[in-house]
Amino acid sequence: MGRDTSRPYIVAGMPMYNEEETIGTVVTRTLRHVDAVICVDDGSSDASARIAEACGATVIRHRVNRGYGGALKTLFLHARELDVDALVVLDSDGQHESEDIPAMLEPILNGEADFTIGSRFVEGGGGTDMPAYRRLGIKVITAASNLSSDLGIKDTQSGFRAFSKMALDRLRFDAEGMELSLEMLEDAQEKQLNVVEVPTIIRYDVPKGSNFTAVSHGFTVLTWALLSLSQKKPLLVLGLPGFGLLATSAAMGMRATQDLTLQLDALIGDGISAVWIGLLGLALMATGLVLQSAQRFLKHLLVREFGLD
Ligand SMILES: Nc1nc2c(ncn2[C@@H]2O[C@H](COP(=O)(O)OP(=O)(O)OP(=O)(O)O)[C@@H](O)[C@H]2O)c(=O)[nH]1
Ligand SMILES: [Mg+2]
Question: Does 2 reside within a domain?
């Protein structure tokens, strides 16, 4: 059957890993709002793939687990091949409301946005039964990522995202896990895509959900944010703590000198600590300075010599 070219062709994509309890309902509900659903099954050991297919989804199988980022790469590849007008990505565990898909697509279809994010933290959005530690974790990650690049996005951790054809063509990422959430936002910022947050409710009262996995994902994403920050602002990340350590060392050294009357043991102990802390401080500051000037030099080379901006 040919495609109706008089209206936009919309596909929903779902990363899927052992979601047999929820995938059937999510696919059925999602198909009410899109032309096709693609589930990327990442080596599930349960009946997820069979149920998704029975409910009308196309299932793409990875033979080995390639993580959330790997699943998104596969989805982008297929969406480009299918020449879709928009791709909406949502979780297969029932946390995202399929009923919000039209609201997610609207800014894309009317040309206001290239990329939308279903957001818990804009007016009208929220999370049912969202544990406080999750909220805190998201805020910490968002604050860290805003230090390196002022993304201005309130919900950097929502996996409910929709993309225009242009965004699908231009976005590139290579993270394997959930850190993809930030890499994609940074890439969108560098490519000057128009990112809009759409209020949505993300559910936490779904059958599955492991606190351990969520915390470990949280640390992976935070580590990525800090690495990105140290690449972009090495002087802030290394130089500032280095300077703090150097100042501490100086203060300790001065105290050790002044307290000559104190017992020899304590004196030596403090003196040695002062030397170590001082050396660490100097090393961090020096590394920060070297990286910062390397970055400036590289930028200078690219912009001035090769005309790249
Ligand atoms: N393809 C693929 N999908 C995955 C993988 N890990 C998780 N997913 C899917 O990605 C979506 C989000 O994963 P979750 O584990 O629910 O992550 P989360 O929503 O941040 O964490 P919770 O709040 O605990 O649910 C779900 O639809 C999962 O089925 C994976 O390794 N490969
Ligand atoms: Mg989930």
Answer: no
